[in-house]
């Protein structure tokens, strides 16, 4: 299945709402994302992204339809050459290789257009699909971060993956 990355458009808000109003997706994201996710939330996300990180926070599309999101976020201080990648794919598109393709495209773009040399991701340990996706995209497993987060009132282990610029 074909995958492309592009800047967000305000008219993506309805599709974004449809994706984000899924508790299976929300369960694997950081806190602070509203649920239910309203059109106003989507519009605020899109406008903020366009103003602050438009080149590195992109819509994942397939057949001209938004199917997810991917963003790379530069770290600060002594970690300024490192970035965290975050992503999600709409449930109807799970298992079709779109996430892996998006990761490969985004990481290549970051390494070619910025001075970032390390991209990392920290999926929850109980999300093996995300871990597998990272591995298929060339990320190396660096270890387990025990009780690294509290999500929905539960301690969660996380996995540390990274991709280093050649």
From TrEMBL:
Gene3D superfamilies: 3.40.630.30. SUPFAM superfamilies: Acyl-CoA N-acyltransferases (Nat). Residues 3-166 form the N-acetyltransferase domain. CDD domains: NAT_SF. InterPro entries: Acyl_CoA_acyltransferase, GNAT_dom. It comes from the Bacteria. PROSITE patterns: GNAT. PANTHER family: ACETYLTRANSFERASE-RELATED, N-ACETYLTRANSFERASE DOMAIN-CONTAINING PROTEIN. This is N-acetyltransferase domain-containing protein. It comes from Candidatus Enterococcus ferrettii. The lineage of its organism: Bacteria, Bacillati, Bacillota, Bacilli, Lactobacillales.
